[in-house]
Amino acid sequence: MDVESDITQLRKNYKKDWRFRLALIGTALAMVVVVLGAFTRLSHAGLGCPDWPGCYGHLLWPTESHEIEAANKAFPLTPVETDKTWPEMVHRYFAGMLLLLVAGLTYMFWRRRGHRGFIQSHILLGLIVMQAAFGMWTVTLKLWPQVVTAHLLGGMATLAVLWMLAERLRYRKRVIPPHEFTALQRLRPLAIAAVVAVGLQIALGGWTSSNYAALACPDFPTCHGQWFPSADFSEGFNIAQQIGPNYLGGALEGEARTAIHVTHRVGAIIVAVLVSLVAFLAWRAGSPRWAQGLLAVLCLQVALGIANVVMSLPLSIAVAHNAGAALLLLSLLTFCYRINTVQPAIGNS
Asked: In whole angstroms, what is the distance from residue 272 CA to residue 201 CA?
């Protein structure tokens, strides 16, 4: 019986390892999808394929001269731009791969309904299906800012849930001295507030990008040489704006875009203050590595944001800024999870 129980336990561990590995692979794939989505959006290739799910009626995209000619006849209002078709389709195929992986992961958890990752896996599947819908609406609604921003947030949410699932699957008991445990527990509300602030800042970043407001303020740290430039906040944040006909290049006036950009800058200051406080208090609580890591990611993200302005939004830096936002979010979420699961040592002072 002992041998049989050992074999059963080994099988359980093997299956657990595979779930953990799939969650890690899914996290990496989700990060690729987020970066590819940013590249597609920032290279103005969001409408590189006017139809969905194919591209000018192709499984990939038209490349031969006769294919391009036929595509131009079929879609006379949106002629083929070869430098924009492939980013859109590559992004779609990677997103499709992520859907298949999450479906497989969900099936593995469905077979064990009592497992602690069961709910998370089904939330993931729902997020991915919703993301597919937003991807379709991004094209059919011609880059409507509300949909583009929601699509970005859905991608970030998918990445975050996958990473937290991986964290949960590899959970091991972590024991720290009681005084350090107490200090970290006191830090938990501030860490959660930092996560919320980063999430809102990502939403602001999506709204800035989808409304083409990243260069609304061409200078730094002022905006148009002023600390308080003219800005139309009511129009800039009018989420009830009408659909269509086409938002490529943006549809807002200059002062509305300035309002969005300035708000994003203010949000960056709030995030920087909160994350710096978390890092400082984590250091004092006895977690210097976490403090150093959070500060490093924060400084990188701030530097990339400033570089976007002073260098007029170079594509590589703009894409890296999106990746940096994802990395900062994951770092804070992991820190919160570790705080929540750590346990105090018994008998130590």
From this structure: 11
